[in-house]
Design brief:
Elements lengths: L1 E5 L6 H11 L7 E5 L11 H9 L13 E4 L10 H10 L2 E4 L4 H11 L1 H4 L7 E5 L1 H4 L27 E3 L10 H11 L3 E4 L3 E6 L2 E6 L3 E4 L1
Parallel strand pairs: 1-5, 2-3, 2-4, 4-5, 6-7
Antiparallel strand pairs: 1-8, 7-10, 8-9
């Protein structure tokens, strides 16, 4: 699996070019599935913000990039319909577009649905994460980013070996000083990235793609 881990989505030409490189084809020839599940775990998200993500009307606007086709993959539904139905949907897609919200909630449903177990068998799949959709691939998100009350802790999937502090400078509580304190508490490799920055990960190799501000810790 190839990762494009963003804070705010495909927000500039450099990030879009990185996406096309990962896909190995033009966006207009690729099939995408949108995953809004993380939104339901965060108190700041609503049915309306989930719809905006799906309709391409959010600030991330991933679904509106001009895909050949776009579908919805709601992880909460998958355990009730059987893998024989939904696994082919995922295998036939080129890219998963994963919205933000709460990363621990998303992690829970990735495991419960079986998607987390399926992903290692999809080497050509591209995962495009926004905020929590990126953070879920890390080992931990830090207590400050856990909003789901039922989360047992701040651990997530650990597909990559670093953590992500998103929305650098986008909110008063997301300053560089806040990121430094967060990273010190984690005590592990991490990146703080703003809305104009993304991280690509292919075969374990990390590349920073940025027209903005970012910092690496550890």
């Amino acid at each position: 699996m190839k990762l494009l881990l963003t804070s705010g989505g495909v927000t500039n030409p450099n990030i879009q070019s990185a996406l096309v490189r990962l896909l190995g084809k033009p966006i207009g020839e690729a099939t995408a599935l949108c995953i809004p599940t993380a939104e339901y775990g965060h108190p700041a998200c609503t049915p309306f913000s989930a719809w905006r993500f799906l309709a391409g009307r959010s600030s991330a606007s991933l679904s509106g990039l001009g895909w050949k086709s776009v579908g919805l993959l709601e992880l909460l539904a998958l355990p009730t319909i059987g893998a024989e139905r939904w696994v082919p949907w995922v295998r036939e897609a080129d890219v998963l577009l994963v919205d933000g919200g709460d990363a621990t909630y998303l992690c829970h449903w990735m495991r419960e649905s079986g998607l987390a177990d399926l992903l290692p068998s999809l080497p050509d799949m591209v995962w495009v994460g926004v905020s929590a959709g990126s953070m879920v691939m890390t080992p931990r998100v830090g207590a400050a980013f856990v909003e789901w009350e039922a989360a047992p802790d701040d651990r997530t999937l650990g597909v990559v070996d670093f953590s992500i502090f998103p929305h650098l400078d986008a909110f008063p509580e997301n300053s560089l000083a806040d990121a430094e304190r967060w990273a010190a508490d984690l005590g592990a490799p991490a990146y703080a990235i703003d809305e104009q920055t993304a991280l690509t990960v292919v075969d374990g190799a990390v590349e920073v793609v940025s027209e903005g501000r970012w910092t690496r810790f550890g």
